[in-house]
Design goal:
Helices cover 33% and strands 20% of the residues. By secondary structure, the protein is α/β, with parallel strands linked by helices. Strand 19, helix 15 and strand 20 form a beta-alpha-beta unit. The longest helix has 17 residues. It binds 4-methyl-5-hydroxyethylthiazole phosphate (TZP) and magnesium ion.
Length: 533
């Protein structure tokens, strides 16, 4: 249904030209509001390419037309109030995600502020006013433009900035990572919900350090950064990828990781044309080299944990009592997790101690869930931790005690966080819905598991959640190294027989017979930057 909105008191409503009249609201759509870049390297052209590559439909409102080639911008013609309001009023539905890029004029900011007062979707703001060629664009209006930009902040889900942009808006220079953190919090005080500051201009090396905060949570993303002679379009593509991921339903924290991977791959594979470089768009980003390490500190890399050895993983039962080890290890299970909930004190300690003794007798790899201190004290093979445990566990101590580490993940954000610890294996789930563990995440599904298999190429990957005998072929065909199971074994009519059958089934798969030997990501290029723990 067509709506008529009063944008900044404008009286002009040429609404005959519908741009998006019949688009069903259910389609994943992003509206990008920004400038045209005639060379296609940045602006709306780059946004639309990004949307398409991530499987999202784009629509656009042009705020200015620029004349660009690979080396310079020769002129810019901002759109008049009339043309901007005409484009806005022609939209019959407003997508749930809007990306704001270069607005070019103070009057356009005012129109947007008025429009956003009654818009209920999410807004990503990437002001791009100081990107490589645009520094001079705002000329006479620049002071006022920078000031007016702040009026947009209360409506913005996330503001993405480079250091030069941060400096322009705040009117001071940024010298250190600490300055970036302070700047982030200063922006929040201006009414923003969250801010992402790209720290790559701070150090002239091959690392990128980006900071995100929403006031309650903050983190750094550390990744590789290919020296890029001409950074046109980086901000546009990054924020466009984030907008597309939000439109696909990913939460903001995941959308940031996907966007970081998209731009990382785009820069890494950038194409050189006429002595200038253009970001490459190549579909969904899946390469481990582009996966950032997420940590509460900058340079948040860790040394790699010891791997799980050369033996295949295959069946990985998760049990809650040492009796299960007595029952399952003689059958040939060689990796198992003790996951005790609701026992304490002596009883808990005794269970852990006994389980470690049984595992040692069978030369089986036993991971102790949660109780990392007892695991160290009794010399377990490894420790398994959930994401919430990572807030309190002393991971450095587990590493120093030379125990292996397994980590649970449920989403992109957690996968990037796990990657920073370089664990011995990563578990992803729940693949299907399961009554065995309460999680606030929807099931991951096979398609996402397949993607994570590609992305976590140097890790032993374990699938968990809702997996039963009938689902083993589908799971194993994704190429995972192991399958963790609780109820399919512990609640089977005949757990012994079920375990024997599961072991036989798993042995039939190539990924089990020929496990990746390089389970420890020591060969990853990132590893050359590892700091010591
Ligand atoms: N982590 C993610 S799902 C899950 C855990 C511990 C439970 C898996 O149990 P089940 O019975 O194999 O679905
Ligand atoms: Mg736990």
């Amino acid at each position: 249904m067509k709506r008529c909105i009063n944008y900044g008191g404008s009286t002009v409503w040429p609404n005959e030209h519908k741009v998006l009249s019949d688009l069903p609201e259910s389609l994943d759509v992003v509206l990008t509001i920004g400038d045209s870049d005639s060379s296609g390297g940045a602006g709306i052209q780059a946004d639309l390419q990004t949307f398409q590559n991530l499987g999202v439909r784009g629509c656009s409102i042009m705020t200015a037309i620029t004349a660009h080639n690979e080396h310079e911008i020769t002129t810019m013609q901002p759109m008049s109030v009339e043309y901007i309001t005409a484009q806005l009023s022609a939209l019959s539905h407003f997508p749930k995600i809007i990306k704001l890029g270069m607005l070019a004029r103070v009057s356009t900011i005012e129109i947007m502020v008025n429009f956003l007062r009654q818009y209920t979707g999410k807004v990503i703001l990437d002001p791009t006013m100081l990107s490589a060629f645009r520094k001079e664009l705002l000329h006479a209006e620049s002071e006022q433009y920078l000031h007016e930009l702040r009026n947009l902040f209360p409506y913005v889900e996330i503001l993405t900035l480079t250091i030069p942009e941060t400096e322009s808006i705040l009117g001071r220079t940024i010298h250190s990572y600490h300055d970036i953190e302070n700047a982030g919090h200063e922006f929040l005080a201006m009414g923003l919900k969250s801010v992402f500051i790209k720290g790559s201009h701070l150090e002239h090396n091959t690392l990128s350090q980006d900071y995100w905060t929403n006031g309650t949570e903050s983190y750094w993303l550390s990744g590789q950064y290919d020296e890029y002679s001409n950074d046109r379009g980086m901000g546009c593509v990054f924020s466009a990828a984030m907008s597309a991921s939000l439109a696909l339903g990913y939460p903001l924290k995941d959308a940031i990781i996907i966007a970081k991977m998209y731009i990382g791959r785009g820069i890494r594979l950038a194409q050189s044309i006429n002595a200038s470089t253009f970001i490459t768009h190549a579909g969904w980003p899946e390469d481990e080299i582009d996966l950032p390490c997420l940590s509460d500190c900058y340079h948040g890399f860790s040394s790699a944990f010891s791997d799980c050895g050369r033996d295949p993983i295959g069946l990985y039962p998760v049990v809650d009592h040492s009796d299960w080890l007595r029952k399952l290890l003689p059958l040939g299970v060689n990796m198992i997790q003790l996951r005790i909930k609701g026992k304490f004190g002596h009883e808990l300690e005794n269970e852990i101690k006994q389980s470690i003794e049984i595992a040692n007798k069978f030369d089986a790899r036993l991971f102790i869930n949660d109780y990392w201190e007892l695991a160290i004290a009794y010399g377990a093979y490894g420790v398994h931790l959930g994401q919430e445990d990572l807030d309190s566990a002393d991971v450095k101590k587990i590493y120093q005690a030379n125990l292996r580490l397994g980590l649970s993940t449920h989403c992109y954000y957690e996968v990037a966080r796990a990657h920073a610890f370089k664990p011995s294996y990563i578990a992803c789930g729940p693949i299907y819905s399961t009554p065995s563990k309460r999680v606030s995440f929807s099931p991951v599904g096979i398609d996402q598991l397949t993607r994570w298999r590609k992305t976590l190429s140097s890790y032993r990957l374990i699938a968990i959640g809702g997996i039963n005998q009938a689902r083993i072929p589908t799971i194993m065909e994704t190429g995972v190294d192991g399958v963790a199971m609780i109820s399919a074994i512990t609640q089977a009519d005949n757990p012994t027989q079920m375990t024997i059958e599961l072991l036989q089934m798993m042995n039939a798969y190539n990924n089990i017979l020929n496990p990746i030997i390089n389970t420890n990501p020591a060969n990853s290029t990132l590893n050359i930057f590892l700091g010591s723990r």
